[in-house]
Design a protein that fits this description.
With 383 residues, the protein is an alpha/beta fold. The protein folds into 2 domains: 4-42 and 287-382, Aspartate Aminotransferase, domain 1, CATH 3.90.1150.10; 45-283, Type I PLP-dependent aspartate aminotransferase-like (Major domain) (Aspartate Aminotransferase, domain 2), CATH 3.40.640.10. The protein is built from 15 helices and 13 strands. A 7-stranded mixed beta sheet has the order 2-8-7-6-5-3-4, with helices on both faces. The chain has a 4-stranded antiparallel beta sheet with strand order 9-10-13-12. It has a two-stranded parallel ribbon with strand order 1-11. The longest helix has 23 residues, at 287-309. The chain is globular, with a radius of gyration of 21 Å. 49% of the residues are buried. The structure holds pyridoxal-5'-phosphate.
């Protein structure tokens, strides 16, 4: 009944964890779930107010323009100049997205012919892989290994694969490893892309979720990056707006135009009232971002205490709301044991790709009190 692209989807590896979770809950266990990467805190009130005001305006009720309102693209460009020190033309170097996932899923349709290769990180956000497959492209998985600080080793990519590649996805600060990129890595990527004629898509969903004074660089700040790449941004994680579905793509105008062509033929843009709320987020006060990062820092530090108790191998993350913890043995079995013995859900690393085996991922989406409760349980587990 289904097309090959559906039948060839990888098995949903989290299904068995979901099932185990509901069984444990049925027994009355108070489960602490660090599984989902969805902020638990509400959208800041000034953004919610902007939506309320906008939604009363009938002019906002009609089809939006495909590329997004110029005022939204202008707000994104202004935000970029302020936070990233990159100048963009809002007319043709900025495109509104219905969340950055939408951009990730659609861009392979613009740049891959059947059989063309897309280079995707492993472990990685699953949509790089499925978006490529849906476009009849062939994903080549670049392992992100601890010994390389979870950056792909571009020299390890076979020459003929590199030549067949048309697209490359990178993502720093990274989900799920929480690793950050160096500017010299970005320079290597630009050289590699020029040598092999590759379009680079840098997914920068976590650029603002940073701690301890760390500032995540924009890929577009790299010399030559504007010639070969784009960057995807999401308001989801930065402003607790996952449910609103709003983001944007910025960078090389021809690449932006290619993504825009696909979108014109598939979707009709983001609700303009949501775009106006997005303008409030991008151009309004940014204390909310700092406040949330302070909260994530406290949560991170609380959780690290427990992970040390368990003897897991962790580097304190400088960015993202994930803690990527090295374990002994099989990640699926480790997760199940943690759930059954301590009522704690963490995501098995293998769910993000083969190279994620040997790790589990915790999302910092629970209060410090709940994290402390989880740490207590970890302590008892150890004893
Ligand atoms: C959460 C996430 C996204 C999706 O963000 P939306 O804007 O909500 O679609 C994209 N990429 C990565 C790496 C993410 O973790």
């Amino acid at each position: 009944m289904y097309a090959d692209r559906i039948n060839s989807l990888p098995p949903y590896l989290f299904a068995s964890i979901d099932k185990a979770k509901s069984e444990v809950m049925k027994k009355g266990v108070d489960v602490i779930d660090f599984g989902v990467g969805d902020p638990d805190m509400p959208t800041p009130p000034h953004i919610v107010e902007a939506l309320k005001k906008s939604v009363d305006n009938p002019a906002r009720h009609r089809y939006p323009s495909y590329e997004g309102m110029l005022s939204y693209r202008q707000a994104a460009a202004d935000w970029y100049r302020k936070t990233m020190k990159v100048d963009l033309n809002p007319e043709n170097e900025v495109l509104a997205l219905i969340g950055s996932k939408e951009g990730v899923a659609h861009i392979p349709l613009a740049f891959l012919n059947p059989g063309d290769v897309a280079l995707v990180p492993d472990p990685g956000y699953p949509v790089y892989n499925t978006g490529t497959t849906f476009a009849n492209g062939v994903p080549y998985r670049m392992p992100l290994l601890s010994e390389n600080d979870f950056l792909p080793d571009l020299d390890a990519i076979p020459k003929d694969t590199a030549k067949k590649a048309k697209l490359m996805f990178i993502n720093y600060p990274n989900n799920p490893t929480s690793a950050t990129a160096t500017t010299s890595f970005f320079e290597e990527v630009v050289d590699f892309a020029n040598e092999n004629d590759i379009v680079v898509v840098h997914d920068n969903a976590y650029s603002e979720m940073t701690f301890d004074g760390y500032k995540a660089p924009s890929f577009l700040k790299t010399k030559g990056a504007m010639d070969i790449g784009i960057e995807l941004h999401s308001l989801s994680k930065t402003y607790n707006m996952t449910g609103w579905r709003i983001g944007f793509a910025v960078g090389n105008r021809d690449i932006i135009a290619g993504l825009g062509k696909v979108k014109t033929n598939i979707d009709s843009g983001a609700f303009e009232a949501v775009q106006e709320a997005g303008i409030a987020a991008l151009s309004g006060p940014q204390d909310c971002v700092r406040d949330m990062n302070r909260i994530y820092t406290k949560r991170r530090d609380a959780l690290l205490v427990g992970l040390e108790e368990l003897g897991l191998d962790v580097r304190p993350p400088k960015a993202t709301f994930y803690v990527w913890a090295g374990i002994e043995g099989n990640s699926m079995e480790f997760s199940k044991r943690l759930l059954e013995k301590a009522g704690i859900v963490a995501t098995p690393g293998v769910g993000f790709g083969e190279s994620g085996e040997g790790y589990i991922r915790f999302s910092l989406t629970k209060t410090v009190d709940r994290i402390n409760e989880a740490v207590e349980r970890m302590r008892k587990l150890d004893a």
